[in-house]
Amino acid sequence: MDSLILADSHCHLEGLDLTFYEGSLTRAVAVARENQVRYLLNVATRLDAFPGLISLLSQDEFIYGAIGVHPSEVVDQEPSVDDLTRLFDHPRMVAVGETGLDYHYQFVNHETQRERFRRHIQAARLVKKPLIIHTREASQDVLRILKEEKAEEVGGVLHCFTENWAVAEAALAMGFYLSFSGILTFKNAEAIRAVAKQAPFDRLLIETDSPYLAPVPQRGKSNEPAYLKYIAACLAEIRGVTLAEIAKQTTKNFQRLFLLKTSRTEAHC
Ligand SMILES: [Zn+2]
Ligand SMILES: [Zn+2]
């Protein structure tokens, strides 16, 4: 287990009240590292979280950042494309999002969500960063808008994947990756496990989405990046490969999606 390198493609560390993580981010990050997590992508869901995100990035080199206004976030002012593009100067700011559509909730009017989503895609194309997509009960509109806004140009990931194979196929065809969370370990997630089994190995990512969705055997607790190993082990079982192979491949996929694009962008500057 010691030689494994795991990449948590989606977690929420800062910007939360610290009833999560036992009140200490420093502890959570240290324990993640002890549990083989060597890449940790922290996803901010509001633009006012930006200063906190940058200070988190300065704490540790293995933390990477993404920012966007989550479809369910109620904000005073909708972010413009310009507001968004300004946030990606830091070399470890690697993705735009999470963005997308959430029709399960009505916190934000659906038309407003769609307009917000389009602006995030436009910003991602301008800064040449991949997108982190959140979709809930909205997959057809998500796929349509990704296509209309030419998201293919930058690619990205459908995070916390809970859709069917048809949605997976459409996303894969646009060059997107699929990221699986602790839901994969839940008893009633047979359909999601079937997609995880079928998807191309070089398009799979894993994530904790912590502090939410703790995997079995920690289900019901507050989640942590340190629990990524349970998700990796579950995926290994589903695919019939070793944990080492899952770690190697998902980390490689993480690097290809988020880090190569970063260095390529830098090289152009
Ligand atoms: Zn999400
Ligand atoms: Zn999230």
- According to CATH, what is the topology? TIM Barrel
Ligands bound to this protein structure: zinc ion
Number of strands: 8
Distance between the termini: 39 Å
- If classified by CATH, what would the architecture be? Alpha-Beta Barrel
Give a description of the structure.
With 269 residues, this protein is an alpha/beta fold. The protein has a single domain, classed as Alpha-Beta Barrel (TIM Barrel), CATH 3.20.20.140. The protein is 41% helix and 17% strand. The chain has nine helices and eight strands. It has helices at residues 25-34, 50-59, 81-85, 110-127, 139-148, 165-173, 190-198, 228-239, 243-268, and strands spanning 6-11, 37-44, 63-67, 93-102, 131-136, 156-158, 177-180, 204-206. It has an eight-stranded parallel β-sheet with strand order 1-2-3-4-5-6-7-8, sandwiched between helices. The chain is globular, with a radius of gyration of 17 Å. The N and C termini lie far apart (39 Å). The relative contact order is 0.15. Bound molecules: zinc ion (2 copies).
Topology (SSEs and partners):
Blueprint: E1 6-11, H1 25-34, E2 37-44, H2 50-59, E3 63-67, H3 81-85, E4 93-102, H4 110-127, E5 131-136, H5 139-148, E6 156-158, H6 165-173, E7 177-180, H7 190-198, E8 204-206, H8 228-239, H9 243-268
Parallel strand pairs: 1-2, 2-3, 3-4, 4-5, 5-6, 6-7, 7-8
Helix pairs in contact: 4-5, 8-9
The structure holds zinc ion (2 copies).
Short description:
The chain has 269 residues and is α/β, with parallel strands linked by helices. Helix content is 41%, strand content 17%.
